[in-house]
Every structure is written in C-alpha cells, then in structure tokens.
Amino acid sequence: MEFYTKVWDNVLQDIRGKVGPLRFNLWFKNTRLESFDDNCANILVPNVFTQVWLQENFSNVLREGIGKLVNNNDLNIKFSISKNGEDGNVSTTNIPLTVKKADDNKNYLPLNRNLKLENFVVGPNNRLAYTATLEIIKDKYPSFNPLFIHGSVGVGKTHILQGAWNRMKEEQNINAVYMPAEKWTNEFIYSLQKGKMEAFRQKFRNVDIFLIDDVHFLSNKQGVQEEFLHTFNALHELSKRIIFASDAHPKMIGQLKENLASRFMSGMITKIDKPDYATRLLILRSKAAKFDVHFPEEVLEFVAEKFDENVREVESALTTLSAHAKFDERKIDLQLANEVLGEFFHAERKIIKINEIETAVLSYFNISRNELHSSKKIKSISFPRQICMYLIKTLLDWSYQQIGNYFASKKHSTVMFAIKKVKEQIDSDKQFKLFIDTLIEKIKKDSPLHPDI
Ligand code: ADP
Ligand code: MG
Fold this sequence. Notes:
With 453 residues, the chain is an alpha/beta fold. It has helices at residues 3-19, 21-27, 48-70, 127-138, 157-171, 181-193, 197-205, 222-237, 258-264, 277-288, 297-306, 311-327, 334-346, 354-365, 369-372, 379-396, 400-406, 412-428, 430-446, and strands at residues 32-36, 40-45, 76-81, 147-150, 176-180, 209-213, 241-246, 268-271. The chain has a five-stranded parallel β-sheet, with helices on both faces. The structure holds adenosine-5'-diphosphate and magnesium ion.
C-alpha cells in the first residue's frame, strides 16, 4: 500500500471512532491525503461542500491525527478539490458495478445471495409489497403488472427485488434480470456510443421478469427516459413481468416524463413504510442469528428502540457491537451497547426546532427573516424559502398546510410544488444533495440533545 494511503487509513480509523459511521461515511469516505511534511498536510476532497465542512468542523481532529506523526501539534491543514471532482465519488448506488464491459450480457450483476425472501421479515409496513411480489413471481400472468414499490432508504426495497431474483433463479428456469436503473443507464449510453443499440434492445426483449431498482435515478434524464420507455413498452407488450423500486412515488420523482410516470402507475403501486418497533425487533433477531456472537435479547430491544430510522443502520449497529466484543474482548451487554452505539444515535436524537432550520438557511443565503417570510418571488429569496420548506418537511414532518400557514399563508399546492422542486434537484444534482446534507448536519449539530439520553 502506498505510504500516504497507509497514513491516511490510520488517521481515518481514529476519526471514524470519534465521529461515528454515519458522519464518517458522509464526510470522509472520498477524501485522500495527498502529501504532508512537518508543517503542512494536503488533503484532497471531492468538492467544495466537503471542504468547507471539514475545515469548519474537523480541522482540529485532523491536525491532531496527522500532527502526531510529525510531532507538530500546530500543523497546517490544506484542502484541495480533487481533479475528477465529485464524479462517481458520491454515487448513491450501493452495489458495486463489477461488470467490466457494459456489453457483457451474461454477467448482469453480483447479486447479494443473502438477500432472500425467506429472510425478509414481513410486518405491517411491508406486507403489501411483499405479497404483491410473491404474486408477480408465482404467476406468469399476474392480475397487475408492473408492480411499483417505493419507500425511503433502507426499508427493504432492494432486499425484496434481489430476494425475488434469487427465488426465480432457484425455482424456475426463467430469465430474471435484476438491475439498478443506473446500471441500465450506463449500458444504454455505452451501447449508444458503440453503435450497439440493436443488441442492447434485443437483450431486454428476452427478459421474462425485469426487476429494476432505484428508478428515481432516471429523474431529470430526458433522453434516457425515452429509451427506458421503449424497453418498458416492449416488455409490457410481450406480457413480461416488471417490478420497479424507487425512493419516491412516481409523481414525486423529479422531472419524469408524463408518459413514463403513467406507465409506472399502470399496475400496482405500494409503499414500504419504516418498520415499527415490533418489526424492527424481529428483523434484528433474524440478523443477529447470522453473527457468530450472541446478542442478548435486552440488547436487541435496546437497538430496536434507539434505531428507528432505517434498517441498514440497525444492521451496522450489530456489526459494530460484535466488532467491539471481539477486539476489546468484551461481553455484549447493555453497557457495551450504550458505550459503543452512543455516537450512532446522538446525531439522530437531537431535538430540532424550526428556529435552527431557519437560522441555518438564513445565514447560508444571507437574507433576513422578513424576506424569508415575505411573498417576494425573486430567486435569491424564493430559492432559500423553498429549501427551508423542504427542510421543515423532512426534519419536522409538518403538513403542507402547516408549512403554508407559516410562510405568509401560501397555498398547500404551492408548498407541495416547492418541496417537489427541491427534491428533484437533490435527485439530479449530486453537489446540491451534498449541500443539503451539509445544511442538515449543521442544523443537527446546532440543536440540543434530547434530555432523555
Ligand atoms: P432499500 O433498498 O429500501 O434502501 P435495502 O433493501 O437495501 O433497503 O435494506 C437495507 C438493509 O435492511 C438490508 O440489509 C436488508 O436486508 C435489511 N432489511 C430491510 N427490511 C428488512 C426486512 N423486512 N427483513 C429483513 N431485513 C430487512
Ligand atoms: Mg435499495
């Protein structure tokens, strides 16, 4: 391993322990140590938002970490933006694209063999999505087609799709294809550039069941949507079965062509909600059984109670616990859970108030509170206002009506439109997404901790 990489890995390990995995992944994952000497360290970051954030919040931690190595606790830390910018670095796909050539049509994707339908815990939040999936995979001519599953991050959409794929592979000899929309898009663009469109189209004609994940990725990509519609129509005419997954309802996917949205909605639409406590506990038990350490029931209950946002976090909580148990030779008990997982949920356990949200937006855009609440339509005011509405919806979950009343009696539909617009931009613009994440981080950081913990 290259020297700087080694040093950086070392520093990062320390930081990861300090800031917790959530923030670590958000801010440090795509950084690199370019060089250092005894008075200055150069760190490469993917974009300006990361730079500002690290400068403001982590300069000291970094100075300490690298400074130790050169015996200088007054080290200068410089940031520069890496040449390839943010491209690919902040990708939201969680499946590595290991297929080397886009036209390699045998090897679709390295699917996760553990994501089986047998291991999927069915609860009130996902029952409909689950049963609808069973119907589609059992019945060659299901009573609805396509099936469109939507829900926020980590609620099990990919699990269902890949689980369906695994089952189709095991039980029947049919051509099931699972693919994230991003990969489909890459193949499409590749084929277009290489003049292999005919082969590309042909390939999808032969699919019996098409499981396509994260279709919100198509947001804002008009040309790609056109071709996607093409594939969809061809499959649908041949009565091939299709399941879509997305992080938003078709109507809420930004800049989606009207006819594509209506195709998405032409079969069954079902939402997976966040699991309730009882379901989370069941999921935890099933995940815990796969570890080679024992998790006492009270620890599982503790995790189920604290981690109510997203199942993926629940899983990393178990992984973190088991790692500590092994390396620190500790017993897994409530005390360890409290110590080790504190970092995890503190960020989630802040009491966020409208005031912190407004202050963050106002100070970033440098406008006054009166302007924010005015009905001025110039972009320099209306844009921050829209962002503010989006944040209130996301962080406080106010109704559209409540938000409207708060902002100079705006209409319900105006608020809905504003929030949709912000969401669209988040979906289509990685820089913007990072910016919003930064704001949210800042708001959480400035908010007080919940007194209960
Ligand atoms: P999404 O695609 O909705 O973002 P994933 O399918 O990737 O979410 O799920 C995140 C993690 O949570 C996966 O490891 C998955 O196995 C697990 N998970 C989510 N819901 C369930 C469930 N109902 N039963 C078992 N595991 C679940
Ligand atoms: Mg997914």
